């Protein structure tokens, strides 16, 4: 978890002595204002950067998820099995026969993960649940029935306001309003709930199902990315550019509602970030968002940015260079490095969930260069599977663990060493299974 002791930006410190001989620490901030603190009240002063540096974990393990028969995600009716593993860089081939647990009957692969727990709306779609996958069994830790607002399994987005306050958001049942619920995850109680003041624009009849949410801690703003639609399903007409709603996270009042300055659609808008990560903050507090635009190559991936302190997309920035298709997953590794999962849009490869058209690359965000993952001097073959988090970054050993389902070999996990750039083989998954997810959870 993040710890913030005291942040001083371009500050100077001086000690003065009051009439009572007490030491006073005067902090002069970058804007010229000053703050005085009694030195007796200060235990420690630590300079930290704002943003989301990779957090060192305590003892932890990996949860692997596979499907049987075909790729999963987005509510596909397919057997889904989960199994915990201590290591992924060595060991025997992972077999899921009589090992692990089938979760698809009661719960969803689409979930929120934090610390030891999974949080989600289960298949029954009548409550929020806090789950722990322990001893290869899914256990209910706590549950909270819905009160006023209701949500469907897999169809909502979320953001963490602090370590124990979770905000859930989605279009309502008629998709003509956006509802929200704040949950205290210590006991899963509902803190508050309501409806955003945002209304459908003229000529449109529904909101996108879930949208994407992200919380900016520096100013307490909750960003909600959404768009208006007409019609339903894959044939629906969508706005050319999505909306950026800026919300006061304390009051849930919408303070701004801006349009992206160019034609683009947010990635994962149907299911939030329940399957894969599409947003992150860098060390400077800039917010990034995976998106795409319809172009001559197909769905051309983009990495968009909102600068710290600003409220709309930077029209001059795209952090996903040399795109050849849709950007699906982004994971920030720190120090300007980004791990991506994307699709190569090509008629011969196909663009379906099961198409062997997906691959991993690393972006250097300073030079805006991108390198496809290779092993033994050869690019790792295209993988099938789209809707899932197939990679996990472990900041303790500074390594990324990522899995592929290639057309001619059994599922394989590789290990990318962020410091050295080397890629090595990890464990394999038995044939007959389709690799879906790697998630890291605390023990």
Kindly report the spatial arrangement of strands forming the biggest sheet: 6-5-4-36
Mean pLDDT: 88
Count of alpha and pi helical runs? 0
Evaluate the radius of gyration.
23 Å
- Class from secondary-structure proportions: mainly beta
Number of strands: 36
Assess the beta-strand content as a share of residues.
over 45%
Tell me, briefly, the overall form.
globular
What is the helix content? under 10%
Low-confidence stretches: 1-20, 45-53
Gap between N and C termini: 14 Å
Main sheet summary: 4 strands, antiparallel
List the helices and strands and how they pair.
Layout: E1 12-17, E2 23-28, E3 34-38, E4 60-68, E5 80-85, E6 101-102, E7 112-114, E8 117-120, E9 127-134, E10 137-145, E11 157-162, E12 165-171, E13 178-184, E14 189-195, E15 206-207, E16 212-216, E17 221-226, E18 228-230, E19 237-238, E20 243-248, E21 254-259, E22 265-266, E23 279-281, E24 287-295, E25 298-306, E26 327-334, E27 337-343, E28 358-364, E29 369-372, E30 374-375, E31 378-379, E32 391-394, E33 399-404, E34 412-417, E35 423-428, E36 433-442
Antiparallel strand pairs: 1-2, 2-3, 4-5, 4-36, 5-6, 7-8, 8-9, 9-10, 11-12, 12-13, 13-14, 15-18, 16-17, 17-20, 18-19, 20-21, 22-24, 23-24, 24-25, 26-27, 27-28, 28-29, 30-31, 32-33, 33-34, 34-35
Description:
The protein is mostly beta strands and 443 residues long. The protein is built from no helices and 36 strands. The strands form 10 sheets. A 4-stranded antiparallel β-sheet has the order 6-5-4-36, with no helix packed on it. The protein has a 4-stranded antiparallel β-sheet with strand order 7-8-9-10, with no helix packed on it. A 4-stranded antiparallel β-sheet has the order 11-12-13-14, with no helix packed on it. A hairpin with a 2-residue loop joins strand 30 (374-375) and strand 31. The two termini are 14 Å apart. The model is unreliable at 1-20 and 45-53 (pLDDT under 50).
